[in-house]
## 1
Amino acid sequence: MRLSWFSAVAGAVTANALPTITATGNKFFTSEGKQFFMKGVAYQLTPDDPLVDTEQCTRDAGLMKTLGANVIRVYHVDPKADHDGCMAAFADAGIYTLIDLDTFSTYILPQTPYWNSTQRDAYAAVLDAFSKYDNSLGFFVGNEIIAEADQSMAAPYIKAAARDLKAYRDNKNYRQFPIGYSAADIAELRPMLQDYLTCGGNASENIDFFALNSYEWCDPQTYDASGYANLQSMAIDFPVPIFFSETGCNQPGPRLFDDQNAIFGPKMVNDWSGALIYEWIQEANNYGLISYGPPVDPTAVGSNIEGGFTRKGMPTPVSPDFNNLKTIWATITPSGVASSTYDPKHVSTRACPTSTASGWLVDGNVKLPTLGETFTGGSFTPTASATGSVTPATKTGSAAPSSTTSPASNPASGPASVNKELAGMSAGLLGVMLVFTVWL
Ligand SMILES: *[C@@H]1O[C@H](CO)[C@@H](O)[C@H](O)[C@H]1NC(C)=O
Ligand SMILES: *[C@@H]1O[C@H](CO)[C@@H](O)[C@H](O)[C@H]1NC(C)=O
C-alpha cells in the first residue's frame, strides 16, 4: 500500500504539471493568468484513437516540441481506452489536447439532424475519460456538420449538444472545459453560423468557442489578398474565443505558413487565439508535417501500413514544410493580456441572424431541440425572447450556397475537397463518407 501510494504521488508530481486553461470573454487564459495562444497540429494517425500508444506519443510529442507546437487536435478517441501514458507524454512536452466528442456513428447529421441520449452519453463518456488531465484544453461537439444552406437547420442541434454537454460538465463538477464547434469555411454560412451559435443571451446554451477550418490562405499570399481581412472583420470583439481549428493550404506548395504571421500579427492577434495546422502525418492528401517512412504500395497491407502510408514509427520532418513552420513559430511569441487586466466587457454578442429564403434558414433565437428531438422539416418555433424576425423559415431543399469552398483565391483546397484526408474527419461530409467507405 505504501509503495503504491508513494508511486501514485510521485507520478502525480511528474506528469500533468501544466497550468489548466479556461475561456473568458474572447480569450483563453492559463491558471497562471497568462493569455494562451494555440500553435497546434491535427493529430490522427488512422481513424483509431492515437492516444493509446505511449511510445508513439512520446516520439511524436518530442518532435512536436521541437516544432514549437503546444496543442494537438484529435478527431477520434476511444473513451474506454487508457490514455494516461499519452496524455503524460504530451503534458511533458507542454502540449494540450482538443478532442472531438463525436464518433462516426454519433455525429449530428447535416440533413436529418437529431440529438438524443445515445449521442449525449457517448459524448459524455469522452468528456469523462479526459476530464482528469490538466492538459485537456477543450472539446468539440461537432466538425463541419454544416456545409450547405439546406443543412443550416442542424445548427440548433449543435447548440443543443453544447447545452447538454456543458450541463453534464457542470453537474459532474468538472473544470470549466471550453466546449465549442469546428466549422467549415463556407462564405455564405459562416457569418450567420458563428453569430447564431453564440447569440440569444443565455451562456448555458451557447458554445464556449468558435473554431474555423479554413484553407483560404495559400502561399504565397498577403493579408489583404487572402480572405483573412474578411474573417477578421467578422471576428472583432467576438463574444467567445475564435481560432483556426485547421489551416495550412498546400496549393501549390511548399507551404510557407505565412498566415501565422497574420494570425499572430497586429491586425488579428487581439481577436484570435491561434491556429492548428492540418496535419501531423503525411498521407495521400499531402498535408503532412512529418512522415513515418516513404510511401508504399497503396494496396500493401502490413502492421502500421494503411492507405499506402506507414502510420507509426519514428517521425521524420517533411521538407521544407516542417522547418518552414518551425522557423515561423519560433519568431511568434505573443504576450497577449494578463487575465488580471483583461476586461471581457469589450466583447459583444451579436443578434441571432434572421433567415433568408435560400440562405441561412434558422430564423432568430429559435427554441432549441430537446434531448431526443428529431428534425422533421419545417421550421423551429421562435422563442418569446427572439431577437430576430418571427417569419417562419421555409426549408428549401434545393438551396445551396453558390460555392461550397472558400473564396476564389483558393479554388482547389476548400474543406469539401474529397481527397483531403484519410484519417481525419475534416473534409466535410464527403470526407466523412470517404472514411466510412474506406474504413467501415
Ligand atoms: C438515437 O437515435 C439513433 C438513430 O436514430 C438510434 O439508433 C438510437 O437508438 C437513438 N437513441 C435513443 C435513446 O432513442
Ligand atoms: C438558459 O438555458 C438553460 C439551458 O437550456 C435553461 O435551463 C435556463 O432556464 C436558461 N435561462 C434563462 C434565463 O432562460
Note: Residues 2-438 form a domain with the TIM Barrel fold (CATH 3.20.20.80).
## 2
Amino acid sequence: MDIEVTRSEGALCHRCGRPLLALLDVPHSFRREDGVEVRGRRRVGLCANCDRHDTAGQGLIAFFTVNTGIADNQVGEVADLVAEWIARLPPPPDLSDMVEPDEENWRQNGA
Ligand SMILES: [Zn+2]
C-alpha cells in the first residue's frame, strides 16, 4: 500500500483542535453498487489526544511522540505501525451515499 506520512506542520485535529502528531495520506477504494471501483486518497490525522485509546494507534503515537521524523532505518518499523493503524480505521465517508440521491433523482426524472 502506498501511504505517505507527513509531519502535521501545525495542522489541528478536527475532533479536539489540538495539534496533530502526523498526517497520513492513505489510498482507499470502495466498490459502488454498480460494481465500479472508485479509488481515491484521504488524509487522516493522528492525534495524541483522540487516538490514545485506540490500541492500533498507540504504537504510532508512541513513535511520533519520541521521534520528530522518520529516519531511514525506521521506515520499516513505521510502515508496520501505519499498516496496523490503517487496518483499524473506520471506513472513509461513504461517497456512494452522496451520489445516490442524485442518481435516484435522475432515475425518477427519467432523464
Ligand atoms: Zn484530537
Note: The pocket of zinc ion is lined by residues 13, 15-16, 18, 47, 49-50 (CB under 6 Å).
## 3
Amino acid sequence: MKMILDERGKKYILKPGVEFQSDLGIVKADVLDSAQIGDEVKSHLDHTFKIVKPNINDFIDLMDRRCSILIKKDIGQVLAHTGLGSGSRVVDAGTGAGAIALNFGNVVGETGRVYTYEIREDFAEVAKKNIDNFGITNIEVKNRNIKDGIDEDNIDLIFLDLPKPYEIFEDVMDSLNVGGWLAVYAPYIDQAETSYRVAKKLGFYDIEIIELLERGLEVRTQGVRPKTRMVGHSGYLVFARKL
Ligand SMILES: C[S@@+](CC[C@H](N)C(=O)[O-])C[C@H]1O[C@@H](n2cnc3c(N)ncnc32)[C@H](O)[C@@H]1O
C-alpha cells in the first residue's frame, strides 16, 4: 500500500492504476505505480509529493467510516492496560468502522485472532472492506448482536463499545480466560459507574474507571505553553479482570 503526502502534510491513500488529483495538481497513474516508497513525484502544477508507506494510523485516518471512531489515546490505553500481545484472542463489539479492531489485529499478529461483532449490516460491510483493504486476515467481522450471545471462549480480552455493556457481563465472564480482561468504553459516566458496580457484583477483580486527558504543547517564539484547545472528553474506560 502507498500513500502520497503533499507539501502541507495532507495525506491520501493511492490505488493502483488510478491517477492522483488535488488542488495542487495531477500526478499520472503510471508515475505513481512505478514510484517507490521514499520517492518524490511532481504534479503538472509543479508541486512536490512524497511517496510514503502508510501505517495503521494513516490508514484509519483515511478509511471509510459511518460513525464516530475511538481515538488513539483511548486505544493505546486499552492495549497497554490489558497487556495484549502476539497470540492473544480478542472479542470486540461494536465494530463501527473497525478502528480498534484493526489495532487489535495489528497487535495480536498471525497467531492471534479478533472476533468483532457489529449489529448493523451496513457498518459491518464497511468494516470488512476496511479490514480487507488494510490487508490483515486475523479479524473476523460478525454481523451479529453481541447481546444474543458470545460464540467464542478462551478469550484474553473482551472490549465493549456499545450502549448498556453491563447487560452481557455474565456472558463475558464465561468467555474469558482466567486472567483475561473486560474493557468498556463508555461516553457517559452513568454507564461507566453501572459497569463498575455490575463487574464488582459478578466477582471481577482489579476494577478501575479511567479517563484520559491529553493536552498538547505549542512551541512559539515567545515560549512553550499548553495549547488553548484540547479534547475535553472522549469517553471513560472501565477495566475489570477475571481471576
Ligand atoms: C461508537 S461505534 C463503535 C466504534 C468502534 N468501537 C471503533 O473502534 O471505532 C458503536 C457501534 O456499536 C454498534 N452496536 C451497538 N449495539 C450493538 C450490539 N448489541 N451488538 C453489536 N454491535 C452493536 C453500533 O452499530 C455502532 O457501530
Note: The radius of gyration is 21 Å.
